[in-house]
Protein: Protein Atg16l2
Organism: Microcebus murinus
Amino acid sequence: MAGPGTPAARWKRHIVRQLRQRDRTQKALFLELVPAYNCLLEKAELLDKFSERLQPEPNDVTPATHQGPWDKDSGPGSDQAPSLATLRVKWQEKEEGLRLECGEMAYQVVEKSAALGALELKLQERQSRLAELEARVAQLREARAQQAGQVAELQARNAERRAAYEALRANTGLQEETLRGLQEQARDLLERLVQRKARAAAERNLRNERRERAKQAQVSQELKKAARRTVSISESQNTLGSGIKEGAEASALAPAPEPESLEREACEKWKRPFRSASATSLTLSRCVDVVKGLLDFKKRRGHSIGGASEQRYQSIPVCMVARLPTRAQDVLDAHLSEVSAVCFGPSSSLLATGGADHLIHLWNVVGGRLEANQTLEGAGGSITSVEFDPSGSQVLAATYNRAAQLWKVGEAQSKETLSGHKDKVTAAKFKLTKHQAVTGSRDRTVKEWDLGRAYCSRTINVLSYCNDVVCGDHIIISGHNDQKIRFWDSRGPHCTQVIPVQGRVTSLSLSHDQLHLLSCSRDDTLKVIDLRVSNIRQVFRADGFKCGSDWTKAVFSPDRSYALAGSWDGALYIWNVDTGKLESSLRGPHCAAINAVAWCYSGSHVVSVDQARKVVLWH
């Protein structure tokens, strides 16, 4: 017999613990099966009791009359004990079979229950998924209903707009027909006017020819009369004087011929042979002809209508030595928003600033301070460029409103509007000849303007956006977004030269002697181009210098000794053009990117403007 400390006892206790643990863990899973299994056990016990009741007691004697068929096999000497044992064995076998079947059925019930639980879980998952899908379908139906309503509204709006478009189209057709009629009338009127002018010119020419013939006939008759008689020296002098006087009167009435024809006629008259009765009459006739020709030629020269020379501005006096700025003298919040353009007038005492608030302010530089002078109104968009003409009497500004505006100093409202660009105008500059200007735009065009008639005299198509332009003698230089500087001859239709630079060109500045060009680009460098050899002479860069925008402006000093530009961090950088080194960098009131700088013509002041509305005067 195994004791409590033997290995067999420990093994049994371990099995009992494991069975109890399994019973505790799996009891919840078989709560429904246990009652069924207990019911089966109760039925088995009931059958067992029934079988025990059916077994005969050993003292009972079975009568011979109740001998069953199983007694036939037993011999006459056999008793009832073997038959009862046999029945009990058979009954036990049947009971064992029933128990095995019950166990198998219980196992199958467990398996079916597990499968049923899994199917119920799947069913719950699918039901939850179905509920989510139904909620999603409901949301989609609501969204579809809303979108259907929006589509109906849009269709109604489109129908209204289509009707309005058809009405506008019909109205446009009527207006086009009216315009064509007016154009035809204008052409007819122009043709009539040209015909009338041609007839008037022909009649005038005919009258002039008749007068000229009559005068020539009169002069010839007088010469013939003079040639028939012989005169003395005193008489010849009087006759010469009268001839000269008559010739002058005739020349005053006759139309003035061209100088070349007069010179040719004079030479022919000197060579023309005369038949005269005496040498005195020949000399007189020749003198009269020569004097008449000279008087007519002199008068024609005095009233010549040849091509008039272009009127040019007087040159602006520039200082010989510019003074480097060292400190900020005056700081103003000049505009309501970003300030993008600044320019000094020729007198160096008048300053113009333009900003995104559609205003141009004029300032007087008095004693190191900026005093408000005037506000120019009427710009239709943000100001991108501002410039005085060389006389200082007009201000030209480029705007985002696809036009350039022209003001007269002293008048608040705009004098002229130069419209014709299809996109923002980024630069507007005066030419050296009076009443002419040049504009550049983001619509890839550069336009020349006749300011007297506010008329575009020429349009130059370019392959890239134009960011800035400058003008020289018969030359236009434009800087573009495709990293190229282009040169245009005002007297020719095509580009004469292209200089590539590294980076988008933001500004151009031409020296006063028109021999050097300063360009600023988005590769954070300034380049000096020698226009005599069309080559980049110097490249300026510095640690910390960086262009703050696509319209950052850099300028030469008036004496071309320095190059000035503002950086994204509000600092001013000044390079020495002769040495190529950074001369100085100024930091002060600016706390935002500097958009533009200007150096006055006297060389004493510098002004800078930034994106934070500040205008700073440096001295």
